[in-house]
């Protein structure tokens, strides 16, 4: 996921939403790029963007409005105005082997095993059909 700051020059306007770009969490999550350009209060908007399958966003300012403190207002606006496709290829990270982190005698180990399951709820009822592709992590 990337944020593009429209209010700064184009050389330093792109901010990647990655864990290692988090520069502050005291009042909100702040992401900062290598040029010092930052965007703050991103957590609820990022949840909404993920739910709506959006991975690129232009913003006009250094801070995202808090709204009501949830992702709901963002999801409602995105659903009401819609999205547009871009010509940019999506990037994905696939974990193909065991991940292990050690700190002294402590260890955390994860093995990514998954399967996809098509899921349909309310097929042909008054609410309409809702479809998801669910990834089950084992």
**Order of helical and strand elements:** EEEEEHEHEEEE
Number of E strands: 10
Helix content: 10-25%
Characterize the main sheet.
3 strands, mixed
Q: How would the global form be characterised?
A: globular
Count every helix, treating DSSP H or I runs of 4 or more residues as helices: 2
Radius of gyration using CA atoms only: 18 Å
Could you name the CATH topology of the largest domain? Ribosomal Protein S5, domain 2
Strand fraction equals: 25-35%
N-to-C terminal Cα separation, in Å?
Answer: 25 Å
Question: Which blocks of ≥5 consecutive residues have pLDDT under 50?
Answer: none
Going across the biggest sheet, name each strand in turn. Answer: 2-1-6
Number of domains: 2
Mean pLDDT: 80
Write a compact overview of the structure shown.
The chain is of the alpha+beta class and 138 residues long. It contains two helices and ten strands; from the N terminus they run βββββαβαββββ.
């Amino acid at each position: 996921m990337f944020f593009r700051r429209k209010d700064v020059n184009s050389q330093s306007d792109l901010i990647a939403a990655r864990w290692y770009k988090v520069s502050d969490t005291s009042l909100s999550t702040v992401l900062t790029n290598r040029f010092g350009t930052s965007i703050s209060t991103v957590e609820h908007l990022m949840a909404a963007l993920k739910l709506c399958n959006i991975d690129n966003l232009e913003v006009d300012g250094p801070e995202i409005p808090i709204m009501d403190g949830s992702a709901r207002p963002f999801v409602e606006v995105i659903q009401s105005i819609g999205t547009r496709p871009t010509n940019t290829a999506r990037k994905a990270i696939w974990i193909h082997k065991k991940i292990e982190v050690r700190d002294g005698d402590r260890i955390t180990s994860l093995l990514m095993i998954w399967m996809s399951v098509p899921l349909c709820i309310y097929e042909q009822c008054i609410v309409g059909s809702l479809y998801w592709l669910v990834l089950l992590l084992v």
